[in-house]
């Protein structure tokens, strides 16, 4: 009997040695989603234009973009038309967590429409004047609908001149303002001498009307910059000035053109069959 037990034990040991017990493979390690690309083209545009968001994500179970875009596929494009500078954030998620990446679409011009927000003045505390557009007005190249026009000439279409000791609609007297008198012209613009924009500079100006003037249609004032090396025109801001007992104001951060050389263009325009007169006040580049 004892011999049989020993024999059975040996058989069991031999069988056990022939069995190959396979362990289950380890669970795969899930890593965070990877955002391969996320961009806006163009990155800068005028208000009212369209830009395209482009993205490519790997390893995500869900992908979305804020600012109303919503859930999207792992790769794709989307046309957007923001009315102001907007940052879009791409969010990619899986079981390991979430990866995000922002992209900013910059609006470099503001479309004029009823209800355009009025900007307070002054909005900055910079004090050093780099360039004074009122003082330098006689040296600018002025133009109206009929072509070039000289500063202070009594042109048939318009007159560009100084107004001395001007009492403006805000009930403040200014020693000298830049007057634009429209006759038969619907716009008057001046292209100023070339300058280099320093770091930290702002363009500031007030615009409006002399006290007692009641404009028929109002005047739109605009600011742009022509870069010398490329000829590219950067449109900044426009204001529809209203006769309402206060001056409207520009405060434009020039960091996007810092270090560049070029010429500023100040433009005033209207669509009106009758005469109109409007003023640039304290127009400067400061830092």
What features would you describe in this structure?
The strands form 4 sheets. Strands 10, 11, 14, 15, 17, 18 and 20 form a 7-stranded antiparallel sheet that branches. Strands 9, 12, 13, 16, 19 and 21 form a 6-stranded antiparallel sheet that branches. It is elongated and about 100 Å long. The longest helix has 17 residues, at 2-18. The protein contains 1 helix and 21 strands. The chain has 2 domains: 34-109, Immunoglobulin-like (Sandwich); 129-286, Jelly Rolls. The model is unreliable at 109-126 (pLDDT under 50). It has 287 residues and is mainly beta. The chain has one helix at residues 2-18; strands at 34-41, 44-46, 51-58, 62-65, 70-72, 75-80, 86-94, 97-109, 129-132, 141-144, 147-149, 158-167, 173-182, 187-191, 195-196, 202-208, 219-227, 233-241, 248-253, 261-269, 276-286.
Tally of DSSP helical segments:
1
Shape annotation = elongated
* Chain oligomer state: single chain
Number of strands: 21
* End-to-end C-alpha gap: 109 Å
CATH topology title of the largest domain = Jelly Rolls
Structural class: mainly beta
Overall domain count: 2
Question: Mean pLDDT across all residues, rounded?
Answer: 82
**Compute the gyration radius: what is it?**
33 Å
CATH secondary-structure class of the largest domain: Mainly Beta
Taken as a percent bin, the fraction of beta residues is over 45%
H/E element order:
HEEEEEEEEEEEEEEEEEEEEE
Query: Which CATH architecture of the largest domain is right?
Result: Sandwich
């Amino acid at each position: 009997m004892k011999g049989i037990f020993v024999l059975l034990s040996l058989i069991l040991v031999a069988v056990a040695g022939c069995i190959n017990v396979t362990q289950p493979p380890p669970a795969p390690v899930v890593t965070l989603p990877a955002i391969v690309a996320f961009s806006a083209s163009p990155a800068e545009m005028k208000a009212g234009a369209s830009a395209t968001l482009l993205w490519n994500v790997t390893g995500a179970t869900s992908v979305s973009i804020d600012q109303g875009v919503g859930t999207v596929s792992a790769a794709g494009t989307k046309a957007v038309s923001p009315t102001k500078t907007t940052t879009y954030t791409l969010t990619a998620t899986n079981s390991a967590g979430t990866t995000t990446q922002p992209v900013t679409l910059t609006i470099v011009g503001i479309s004029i429409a009823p209800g355009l927000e009025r900007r307070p003045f002054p909005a900055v505390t910079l004090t050093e004047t780099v360039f004074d557009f009122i003082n330098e007005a006689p040296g600018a190249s002025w133009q109206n609908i009929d072509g070039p026009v000289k500063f202070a000439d009594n042109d048939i279409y318009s007159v560009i001149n100084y107004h001395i000791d001007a009492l403006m609609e805000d009930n403040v007297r200014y020693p000298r303002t830049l007057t634009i008198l429209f006759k038969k012209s619907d716009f008057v613009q001046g292209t100023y001498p070339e300058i280099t924009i320093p770091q930290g500079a702002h363009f500031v100006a007030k615009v409006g009307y002399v006290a007692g003037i009641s404009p028929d249609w109002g005047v739109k004032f605009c600011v742009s910059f022509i870069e010398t090396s490329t000829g590219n025109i950067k449109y900044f801001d426009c204001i529809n000035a209203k006769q309402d007992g206060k001056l409207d104001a520009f405060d434009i951060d020039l960091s996007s053109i810092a270090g560049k050389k070029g010429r500023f263009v100040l433009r005033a325009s209207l669509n009106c069959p009758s005469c109109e007169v409007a003023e640039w006040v304290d127009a400067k580049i400061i830092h």
